[in-house]
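Each field is set out underneath.
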Amino acid sequence: MTNTPSQDILQEMAAALRQQIEGFQPTVQAVEVGTVIEVGDGIARASGLANVKMSELVEFESGVAGIAFNLEVDNVGIIVAGDYTAIEEGDTVRGTGRIVSVPVGKNLLGRVVNALGQPIDGKGPIAVEKYRPIERIAPGVIDRQNVDTPVQTGLKPVDAMIPIGRGQRELIIGDRQTGKTAIALDTIINQKGKDLLCIYVAIGQRRAQIAQVVATLERYGALEHTIVVVASASEPAALQYIAPYAGCAMGEEFMEQGLDALIIYDDLTKHAWAYRQVSLLLRRPPGREAYPGDIFYLHSRLLERAARLNAERGGGSLTALPIVETQLGDIATYIPTNVISITDGQIYLEGDLFNAGIRPAINVGISVSRVGGDAQTKAMKQVAGELRLEMAQFRELAAFAQFGSDLDEATLRRLERGQRLTEILKQPQYEPMSLEDQVMIIYAGTHGYCDPVPENRIRQYEQDMLSFMHTQHPEIGADIAARKEITAETEAQLQAALEEFGKMWVAA
């Protein structure tokens, strides 16, 4: 009796199946698994997970990620980096064996990502080149070199009197609504077409505010050289806590490739609040102002990662501009004093100056850069020394002049020049200025060319003078930009041009 075609097919399938079963080699894979014993307020505790590591990424049954934060004797405290309401007691939680890491590389430029490096700007997925752990030990002393290359912010008072160098950590501090973020954004906008890549980390801000920042960067063509890392106020405290470290890892990748990067943490006050929240929920012992005992280490290990590497390590740099918010101008509270002691200087913004129309509202008396003139070009150094002296004398005389009415002529002249220099140092937002333009207008102010100009016309004088220089004497600005110094020949040309313009302006 012969088989029908259908029986032949069945026999062939059975034989193929038998062959596959016989050839199967089972693989055994050990997976670190635990059980959720408690969950709530963005925190979960799990039993098991015996070999989980500190800051290891874990995954819950619902697909939500978490970070191992407290390693205790009989359980693991996990901060949930997502919607904790999807997790229930009894759910399994699996260790991934991977320390929290984020995607890094140039493909992230021009994108808005969350604290885990996932795109949230609706522009599609990012082609990931590599990942880096968010926590890393800062480069050692031997790996670093002197900070001597300037970060041009485009802001006259900063570049002239509080210079920032590549690899420095300069704190921007002040009350809310005094223009802290404006200084950071102007600095990013000023890097357009230059060699400094930027990372802006928004921590605990309203989404509308962050959208405004992104729109501003896009409008001024600055988003293409910037990565925006977002952990908004509506996101879990866990994501707000890891956001600055994620941004720092992205910046370190550029630094180690020999490139220069700038990172802005906006702001570390809200970062400290987020860390306090998760620490208290995990029953870590509270200290001063209910912050945990390691709050200083929280920021020091972050800011110490900003560095300028030596030539053997590629010569790249990461410059940090942390922002800290004060209450009623009090810089002696816990978080501000901590961060001031970690950083290499601070730019202090004052509400009274802001309300008086002096913007940027920088108090140049108590603002300081501990790198100083090392981070300035020679041209800026040549004009900034005199400006600093004039402004210091003006502040002293202005305080004294409040009490006396009979002032001699020399004192009046100094006061009037100080008032004009104060006007020169004012600058509208989103209008960063090139090095050569800054040098020329400060030179005009400190050498008396602005003295005949009425105080309320200084802004107009500045615009007209720079326009005259660009059209009639472009070689002066070009020479300062190329040489980065004012030679005797250029100074003579600049003086002649300023005198020529002064006569024209007065006549007009």
User: Anything to note?
Assistant: The longest helix spans residues 378-401. DSSP finds 15 helices and 16 strands in the chain.
